[in-house]
Amino acid sequence: MSFEVEVYAVVRRIPPGQVVTYGQVAVLVGRERAARAVGGAMRHCPDGVPWHRVVNAQGGISRRRQGSGMLTQRIRLEQEGVRLRRGRVWLARYQWEPTMAGPRRTSRPASGARSRPAARIAAIVGGSKRLADSKRSPHPAPGVTPKRSSHPASSGSSKRSVGSPKPSLHPARMRGRL
Questions:
Q1: What pLDDT, on the 0 to 100 scale, is given for residue 80?
Q2: Centroid of chain to Cα 68
Q3: DSSP letter string over the chain?
Q4: Domain range list for the chain
């Protein structure tokens, strides 16, 4: 079966009132990095394929050469009950998550065991939490005097007033702050 035919088969399965992204269609077809190719296939969509249920990764209606196609897509989605706000679909509510009826793994790792990527992510997240916990509290412990900055630009008060602009984080301006 050709790529385009597989794309159309996936799009036909999308129920009314729900949407998918181009990237999600690519993953369902088995070519996870082919979102642009899905867009190309959808450009030549045959009759009977609900092309209007496919949106971009932000939930927006992708630009087309003819603006009338964008308007048609919006009207069709709204007729199916999909609400758009500022030209975007709320993916958390309307995104279709198909159930994959494929073979399931029967063996699972022990309850305390983690896969290697999950362990790495936990270490990174845990490491960033430890880093955040190790930062100095804005309120020093009783009996401890806070360390003053020796930078000439610091005026003694570390708090910004409500209307003052946020300090620049540009690398050239950060030299004295580190």
A1: 96
A2: 28
A3: --HHHHHHHHHHTSPTT-BEEHHHHHHHHT-TT-HHHHHHHHHTPPTT--GGGEE-TTSBPPP-SSHHHHHHHHHHHHHTT--EETTEE-HHHHB------SPPP-----TT---HHHHHHHHHHHHHHHHHHHSPPSSPPTT-PPPPP--TT--S--PPPTTSPPPP--GGG-TTT-
A4: 3-94
d(CA 33, CA 25): 10
The two tokens of residue 79 are 């007729």
Rounded CA separation 165/144 (Å): 31
73-90 in b/e burial notation, b at 16+ Cβ within 10 A? bbeebeebebebeeeebe
Cβ pair 20, 54 in contact under 8 A: yes
Q: Which CATH architecture has domain 3-94?
A: Orthogonal Bundle (1.10)
The single-letter code of the amino acid at 30 is G
Tens of pLDDT, residue by residue over 4-58, are 999 999 999 999 999 999 999 999 999 999 999 999 999 999 999 999 999 999 9
Could you read off the pLDDT of 74-130 as tens digits, one per residue?
A: 999 999 999 999 999 999 999 999 875 544 444 444 555 544 444 444 444 454 444
What's the longest Cα–Cα distance across the chain?
77
